Structure formats: structure tokens, C-alpha cells
Amino acid sequence: MPKFRFTLEGPLRQRRNVEQMRQRELAVALKAMQALQEELRALDESIKQANEDMRQGHMTGAIDTNYLAAHRRFIMSAQRKGMTLMQRIALAQREVNERRAAVVEAAKQFKVLEKLREHQWEGFRMEYARKEFAELDEIGTQIACRVSSEDSPGPVAAGGEI
Q1: Which end of the chain has fewer CB within 10 Å, C or N?
Q2: What are the extents of the domains in the chain?
Q3: Whole-number Å distance between alpha carbons of 84 and 36
């Protein structure tokens, strides 16, 4: 069987590489967003812990206004940091969405060439099968002609009818 050659193998390989690169970029964006979300969870946990400490230890006896002021400043700072983190998460989500769209587009571009390759392969295979069938038919015809010529008598001797 002759070897199938797809003339657009280079662009097909290049599109596969682009798709893989876009997938890696998406993974990086997802990891960055996950790190931001983890940082936000840790901040939330520290706020909850600070509030719990305040309830448990400093609500009885003499009121320490310095401690209350420090706690309030910590909470305000944590809230500002939380808002900043939420904005960064929103930007990261937008980037993830863009990266995901880029992956989808790259996959679509790769699939177009892959389908073309499959279509050409199918045409190649059908053409090869057609040629092989024609060769087998020719061989069968030649064998049938030989067999029939061996079975029929040759020309009749002189004086006989042909």
C-alpha cells in the first residue's frame, strides 16, 4: 500500500501545538485564580478567628480600648484587603474566561484540519481500494482468458473449416 501523505501536516502539527499552549495558559490562569481564592479564604478565616478571640477573651472584666481599637483597625484592614482580593479574583476570572475561549478557538481550528485530514485519508483509502479491485479484476480476466484459450481447440488442420 502506498503511503498516505497529508500536505497540511505542518499546519496541523502547529495548530495542535497552539492548542496545547493555550491549555497551558489556561492552567496558569486557573492556578492564579485558585491562589487568590485561597488567600481570600485564609483572610476570612483570620477574621473569624480574631472575632472569636475577641468574644472569648476580651469581653469580660475591664475593657481595653487599645485592644478594641487594634481589633477594629485589623478588621477594617482585612475588609479592604478582602475587597482588593475580590477585585483581583474578578480580573482573574475574566482572564480565565478569555483563556478558555482561546482554548476553544484553538481546538476548533485544530479540529477543522483534523477533519480535512480524515476526509483526505478516506478518499485515499477508497482510491487505493478501487485501484486494487481493478488490478484484481484485470488479473481475473487474464486468468479467465488463459483458461478459455487452453480449453478451446486450436485452428483446424488444412482442409477443415475454421
Answers
A1: C
A2: 10-114
A3: 10
